[in-house]
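Kindly review this protein for my students:
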Amino acid sequence: MTSVGKGATADLQGDYRALVVVLLSPLAFALVFASWTIFAVLGIELKRLLHFGEVQFALLLAVPMLTGGLAALPMAALARRVGGRRVMIGCLLLICPFLWGIAYSQSYWNFLLAGTGLGLGAGSLAAGLIYVASLCPRRHAGLALGLYGAGMLGAGLTYFMLPLISQAYGWPMAPKLYLLPVLLVALLLWVFAEDAPRAARLAPQDELDEDEAAEGAVRAVARRLPPAAVWRLALYYSFFFGAFVALALWLPGYLAAQYQLPLKVAALWALAFTLPGGIGQIVGGWLADRRDFRDLRWWVSACVMVCLFLLSYPDFTMQIHGVHGDIALRFSMPLVGFALLLAIMGLAMGIGKGSLMCLLHREYGDDMVRSGGLALALGGLFAALLPMMFVLGNEWIGVRTAGFMFLYAALAVCMLVMLWDPGSHAPARLPPPARGS
C-alpha cells in the first residue's frame, strides 16, 4: 500500500509539474517574442522621428534575431546543465534593462544596442524548448511543444497594444509597460515551476567518459555533431520558423506602405498572419502525435508555396494588342485577398513548425540540445537575413513583393534538400557519445 501511495504521489507531482510548464512556458515565450517584435511597430515611428533609412530599419529588425540565433545553442546546452527553469528566468530578467533602455534611447545606435540585448532573450526560447521536452508526456509531446510554440502569438500583443499605448502615453511608455508582465512571469516560474529531474536534463549519452576526453579536440567535436538527417530537418524547420518571425516583424510596415494604411490599422491587419500561425502550431503538434510529418510536410509546403507565388505578384498593367483594339489588363492584390493569403500561409507555417518540432523530439528527443537547439539557431539566423532581403527588393530592385519571391525560392531549395532524405522511412538517430563505465 505504501509503495502504491508513493507511486501515486509521484505521478501527481509529475502531472502538476508538467501542467505548470505547459501553462507558464508559453507565456514566457509570448513575452520574449513580443519584446522581439517591439520594433515592428515602434521602429516605424522611430524611423520617422530619427530620419533613418530602410536599410537601417531592416538592420534594427534583424539584430535581435541574429543575436537570438547565435544564443540558441549555448543557452540550450546551459539549460541541460543547470535546468531550463533557471535559464528561462535568467533570460527574462536579462531583457529587462534593455526594455528600460529603449525608453531612454536618443540615437539609432542606442536602439541597435537595445535590440542586440533583446535578442539574448531567445535563450529563453531554447531553454523553454528543452524544459518542455524533458517534462511533457511522450505520447502528447507534439501537443505540448505546439502549445509552447504558440507563444509566437506574443506578436499579436505588440500589434494590438503598442499603438494604443504609444497614442495614449507616447512611445517611451510602451517598453516600460512590457516590464511588468515579464517580471511577473519570471516570478511565477520561480515560485511555481520546478526544474526537471537531473536524469531528464542530462541524458546518459551526454556524459563523456575518460576515453572520449582523451581524444583529439577535432575528433571529439565531430563525434558530437548532429548527423545529416538532423541538419536536414533543422534546415526545413528554419524556413518555417525564420520566415514566420521575419514576416511578423515586417508585415506592419509593409501593409502601411503598400495599402497606405495608418500604422495602427496595418498592425491589426497583420494579425491575420500571426493568429493562424499560433493556432496552426498547436494543430501541427497535435497532428504529429498521430501521424508522421513526412507525409504531411509536402502538403504543407505546397500550400505555402502557392501562397508565396500569389503574394509575389506585384501590381502591374498589361496591354494586349487584340483584333478589335488594345485590351488593358490591370492587377492589384486587394487588401482582403492579401489578408486571406496571409491567414492560409500562417496556418500552414504553424502546422509545419509544430509537426517538425514533434518529429525532432520523437526521433532525436534523447538529445534535444543538438536537434531542437540547432533548429532554433538556424531559424534565428535565417530570420535575421530576411529583413535585408526585403529591403533589397524594395529599395534596390524596386519591387516591393521581391521578399515573397525570395521566400518562394528558399522554400524550393528546402524541398529539394528534403527530397534527398535516405532516412525517410528509417531515420538515423543521433549517435550517442561514448558513455563512461
In short: Confidence is low (pLDDT under 50) at residues 1-14, 199-222, 424-437. The chain is about 80% helix and 5% strand.
